[in-house]
């Protein structure tokens, strides 16, 4: 009769130990999950903020350079500066986040920047020449976006 009592006690202790292991494994899984939810970064937040501030400073200096221009040249210069700023920011985001989405966004930003600069170049033209220029710009953008998504 003593044997079944010992087995019941041992079974109870094993059940408690298994329950404790289950709770520990669940807590560990949640801990790992919370760490993995954050994307891996390849730079510190301080480096990211410093790089972002440097981009803003460079953009401001480039905009000052554009202000001496007039007409279509001003529009082209502004479009180039804006495209360059967006490209630098997208590169920074891709480096900081290190995700596939950020890299795809970088490709789209490149295509959009080239398109905006092309459109600014078309602004100096009139009539059919402007229409043809805009059509070419749209086709180049479509090609770039198609290659960016693949």
Structure write-up:
The protein is mainly α and 150 residues long. The chain has 2 domains: 1-38; 40-149. The chain has 5 helices and no strands. 9% of the residues are buried. The model has no long low-confidence stretch (mean pLDDT 81).
Stretches with pLDDT under 50, minimum 5 residues: none
Distance between the termini: 73 Å
- Estimate nothing, just give the exact number of structural domains: 2
Please provide the ordered H/E string of secondary-structure elements. HHHHH
- Tell me the Rg in angstroms: 29 Å
Which class do the helix and strand fractions yield? Answer: mainly alpha
The proportion of residues forming helix, as a percent range, comes to: over 70%
**Tally of helical segments:** 5
How would you state the average pLDDT, rounded? 81
Sketch the major β-sheet: none
Number of strands: 0
Shape: elongated
Beta-strand level of the residues, as a percent range? Answer: under 5%
